[in-house]
Amino acid sequence: MSATGIIFSNIHDANIPDLTRMRTLASVPFGCRYRLIDFALSNMVNSGITNVNVITHYNYHSLMDHLGSGKDWDLARARGGIKLLPPFVSAFANNMNQLYETRLEALKSIHHAILHITDDYVVMSDCDVICNIDLNDIINDHIEHNADITVAVKHVNLTQEQARISTIYTSNEKGEITDLMSYPSDFSGEADVSLNILVMSRQYLTTMVLDAIAHNYVSMNRDVIRRNIGHANFRVYRYDGYFAVISSLSEYFAHSMELIARDDVRTELFEEKNRPIYTKVRNSAPAKYITGANVKNSLVADGCVIEGQVENSILFRGVKIGKNTVVKNSILFQDTFTGQNVSLNYVLTDKDVVIRDRTTLSGAETMPIYVAKGKMI
Fold first, then answer.
1. Cβ atoms within 10 Å, residue 129
2. CA–CA gap between residue 191 and residue 189 (Å, rounded)
3. What is the second-level CATH architecture of the domain 288-371?
4. Is 3-270 CATH 3.60.21.70?
5. Is the dihedral of CA 280, 286, 289, 295 positive or negative?
6. Rounded distance between C-alpha atoms, residue 328 and residue 333, angstroms
7. Which end of the chain is more exposed for a tag (fewer CB within 10 A), N or C?
8. Residue 135 contacts by C-beta under 8 Å, 6 or more apart in sequence?
């Protein structure tokens, strides 16, 4: 049994437009030193998938810089390895060569690459889900039940607001999909929510894409799965570990803060035996704590220089906290600089932000203040 991975890097960019204005969702920083794509990519590498295609859309310069040759994931290989597939590699995405908006349109645009896949199975993953999962379990379940498509789901209790941004699957006692709802506006309660991870055979994927091109299908949920429920063997695989969906800026902030508030989240994501989360390695000096600095319950990356007070916060690489500055409940991206006597509470700064002396910014837990990349306040 062998498998190829396909990662969609841009599909959910619209969920957090502030952070994806100049980057893909896949390259959004997370957890002090990682990018969101690191979780999907590490899940594949840890499951023995060493042939990975990353489908891009636009704004993928930072993604290219992060992935490089793939050596940090052991994917710098003469055969296989990681391949970045930009848009417009074929004319079949749509008639106008517009940028695709769905997974099926993205697959249609790379159908020539799909025809050259030689592995038996294909695992597809979005970049909006954070989890540490053994994909071999899904593949083996898929093979055991001779499924056409297997979808990874998690049984959760949804609010109406959460349901509006979720794909919900209904299945029978055998695990066969009987119905699905995409982004329902009036649903709440317990349901199986998609993790946006799918498994299918190479042959089924090839047939599905060619059929979509012939009939101008655009949606995998509507035109492929829902249309063929009862005629094909579509199944769910229930995952019982931790997962988080990045569906908005407030959700991104909340799930980031879970790394500080919950030891079990850090343990499950980053300390699973034989399943580390890999990322690009940068050799920076250790964080420097100047006399008088006070840091509590925070994640601090290398290269930081701290003179003030930091509490319940996440500091990415190269952040500088000035003298008498207080940073609480905040996330500061790479190379953020704060002057002296600054006060930050529930603030999210993008890269290269400068906050000058005697500035006070205070947001709320459900609505943090966002400072765009390169801004000076």
1. 24
2. 6
3. 3 Solenoid (2.160)
4. no
5. positive
6. 14
7. N
8. 3, 43, 44, 47, 49, 123, 197, 199
Query: CA-CA distance, 209 to 198, in Å (whole number)?
Result: 15
**0.85 surpassed by pTM:** yes
272 is written with which tokens? 């699973």
> Is residue 175 a contact partner of residue 225, using CB atoms and an 8 Å limit?
no
Amino acid at position 373, single letter: K
Among residues 42, 61, 60, 62, which one has the least CA distance to residue 52? 42
3-270 against 288-371: fold identical: no
d(CA 337, CA 166): 37
Token readout for 185 is: 């506006």
The pLDDT tens digits of the residues spanning 150-161 come to 999 999 998 888
Residue 326 has pLDDT above 70, yes or no: yes
Indicate whether 366 pLDDT > 50: yes
User: Among 300, 291, 287, which Cα is nearest to 327's?
Assistant: 300
d(CA 320, CA 336): 6
